[in-house]
């Protein structure tokens, strides 16, 4: 289909409006196969600026948005992919239609008839592509909802969901200035998870964490931590996790000693992680936190529970 789309864009030219006009009614077909085929073709067509040149962008975009409630999961996935393709086919038009595109992506993340989260995955990937072209005010209106919605995917068993959600979180930090305090809270909620997943078994997830942490650095209010993320988490650079997390904990306890209990609680959640390297990293993380915290703040931690290694719920006092 991608090659069909590019061939159509190159050779069909003025015939495309008639082809699109013929395909649009097929989106309402009773047959899943016909809706899938038509949606896939139109979604790929949005990758080309030809839809803009031929004044087809709006009708095709509206058709894709209208497929979000399609009973066929694949149609919903392809429709979101098409809307995301506007970022490459007609990037100059994304700003104009930003609110509608953003609403479609958020609806995709909230899809309740998606047991394997394929629609959510496509929504996160497409939104990451669109963000650079959206109005800041449109994104800020949905910023916290998106950040909270994608957070559970950071620990998904599916590596694509881990990677896409973490990359999207990194991109979202660019829009945090207008709601800095509230989004800073989301960064704090995600910090331990992003640091531990630097030990993720999948390299693409590790790269995503490096990117997200580099993006979070400037919002952390700690120049030393920001510089560490910028210098040590470059994509091509290897990382000695033990040395790195030791220095991170030193900066955290110097800048945010009141966060000790919160950081410990989150790490304890990962004592039963399915990934052995993350399971091993969590107690190391706690050890360095306790090592670097001032004596005045040690009372935050219940040492009996810590030594026993029992799992604490995140919401425990």
Automatic annotation (TrEMBL):
Domain of life the protein comes from: Eukaryota
Domain Maestro/Maestro-like HEAT-repeats: 61-308
Any one Gene Ontology cellular component term annotated for this protein: cytoplasm
Gene3D superfamilies: Leucine-rich Repeat Variant (1.25.10.10)
PANTHER family referenced in this protein's UniProt entry, alphabetically: MAESTRO HEAT-LIKE REPEAT-CONTAINING PROTEIN FAMILY MEMBER 1, MAESTRO-RELATED HEAT DOMAIN-CONTAINING
Name used for this protein in its record: MROH1 protein
Organism for this UniProt entry: Penelope pileata
Name of the gene this protein is made from: Mroh1
